[in-house]
Inverse folding.
């Protein structure tokens, strides 16, 4: 009888769902920007959907995410509860900062989202459209100051590509880097820079409120939800998409990686995450596991070539 009761209890315990993992997500940027928004959106969706019992977010800003990345690599080794968000910006920052720590030292999990670059000016600016910006750039590239994210990141690369496309020396671009979306936004709204450049989601509220005017978007074709011409429509042959990812700690086991992958897969398929993407105007560019690791290598090589082209990397 005792054996029967024990067996019944054991069967009951085995039938219980596995304990949801707790996570700590490092956002390697100041509050307000795309990585911070990604980390906090993940936090909300993982908890709301019951995928994780508790999720904490920490901000470690600086140097295009490379300060946070170095801290993560050094302190999170072998810990399957630790995650870091990053993306295309970090790929460029690692190259421009000659960072001793690279993405090869973490465990890539998945590319999550994609977002197009938006060019904005304050509502009172004399620049009314892309043609107005191009005219100023051609007349005196240094007189146009660009406010965006980290040096060597997607915003900086896009500014260089725009200059190159219109026949202006990309090394003459007067780019001012900010470590977080909040700081960049304050500088643009405060007329401290001529033009702002970042992911559309970081400007969406101010565009809707009328305090910022959008003059172009970096997509190949017009986006229904965004009332702005593409750069190409305005005669500037540039299209680019920023992407964001999540990675796990170095030194974790194959089983631990598989468990994290399963949780991120659930996140990607959840109603809460789908709503977040729609609300923020982020495209679902989900690519996971080995396929993402391969794509990351290709993107790193392509980015190195672009950065050399626009004079940011020798």
């Amino acid at each position: 009888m005792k054996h029967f009761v024990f067996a019944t209890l054991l069967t009951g315990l085995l039938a219980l769902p596995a304990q949801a993992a707790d996570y700590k997500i490092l956002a390697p940027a100041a509050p307000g920007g795309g990585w911070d928004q990604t980390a906090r959106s993940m936090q909300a969706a993982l908890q709301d959907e019951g995928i994780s019992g508790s999720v904490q977010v920490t901000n470690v800003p600086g140097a295009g995410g490379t300060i946070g990345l170095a801290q993560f690599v050094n302190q999170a080794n072998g810990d399957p509860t630790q995650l870091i968000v990053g993306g295309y910006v970090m790929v460029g920052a690692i190259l421009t900062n000659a960072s001793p720590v690279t993405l090869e030292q973490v465990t890539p999990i998945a590319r999550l989202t994609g977002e197009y670059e938006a060019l904005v000016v304050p509502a009172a600016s004399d620049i009314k459209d892309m043609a107005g910006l191009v005219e100023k750039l051609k007349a005196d590239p240094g007189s146009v100051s660009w406010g965006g994210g980290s040096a060597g990141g997607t915003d900086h690369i896009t500014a260089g590509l725009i200059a190159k496309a219109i026949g202006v020396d990309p090394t003459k671009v007067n780019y001012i880097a900010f470590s977080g979306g909040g700081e960049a936004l304050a500088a643009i709204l405060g007329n401290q820079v001529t033009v702002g450049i970042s992911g559309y989601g970081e400007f969406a509220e101010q565009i809707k409120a009328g305090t910022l005017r959008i003059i172009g978007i970096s997509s190949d074709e017009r986006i229904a939800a965004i009332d702005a011409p593409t750069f190409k429509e305005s005669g500037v042959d540039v299209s680019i998409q920023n992407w964001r990812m999540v990675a796990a700690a170095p030194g974790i086991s194959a089983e631990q990686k598989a468990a994290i992958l399963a949780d991120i897969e659930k996140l990607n398929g959840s109603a809460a995450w789908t709503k977040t993407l729609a609300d923020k105007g982020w495209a679902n560019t989900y690519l996971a596991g080995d396929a993402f690791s391969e794509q990351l290598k290709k993107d790193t090589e392509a980015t190195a070539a672009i950065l050399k082209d626009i004079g940011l990397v020798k």
Remarks:
- The chain has eleven helices and ten strands.
- Residues 259 and 306 are 36 Å apart (CA to CA).
- The beta strands are 23-27, 55-59, 82-87, 107-122, 145-148, 174-177, 195-199, 212-217, 241-248, 283-288.
- The first strand starts at residue 23 and ends at 27.
